Amino acid sequence: MSSSAADPFVGAGLSAFCYPSWDKALLAMADSAMDECHKREIRKQIEARQLLAAADNLKKYLGEKRLAAKLLSLFNLEKLKPVCETLSRQAVFLLLYLFPRGPVITTNFDRVLEKVY
Q1: Is the pTM value of this prediction over 0.85?
Q2: CB-based burial of residue 42 (10 Å sphere; 0-12 exposed, 13-18 middle, 19+ buried)?
Q3: Distance linking the first and last C-alpha atoms of the chain
Q4: Quick one: which H or E segment has residue 75?
Q5: CA 70 to CA 53: how far, in whole Å?
Q6: Tens digit of pLDDT for each residue in 11-63?
Q7: Least confident of 52-56, 94-98, 112-116
Q8: Residues 79, 71: contact at Cβ < 8 Å?
Q9: Which of 28, 32, 54, 55 is CA-nearest to residue 42?
Q10: Cα(60)–Cα(67) distance, rounded to whole angstroms?
């Protein structure tokens, strides 16, 4: 099967079954490392869809190294292992049939797409 359409641009939604969305990831990092006052501030920013401001506050509070460690724990390759057996039943797997030769374009660091292809 060959496609004459443009290369697909794939968003994070296709790997949402495996990884948390950015708002949930920011909340999880805040919940695990911040006092209640800072958590409230982060929650308000997330509710207002000010995700960059919330991430910036997390970085200020946690420091760059702790923030990086928390990000790695949320978005690591180990999270894929339990879902690999169900990967063929996920929407992302349809990309192989729609665009068998790729490429697939994304702004995400997406191990799910790597695993599919």
Answers
A1: no
A2: buried
A3: 15
A4: none
A5: 17
A6: 878 888 888 888 999 998 988 777 888 889 999 999 999 999 999 999 999 89
A7: 112-116
A8: no
A9: 54
A10: 9
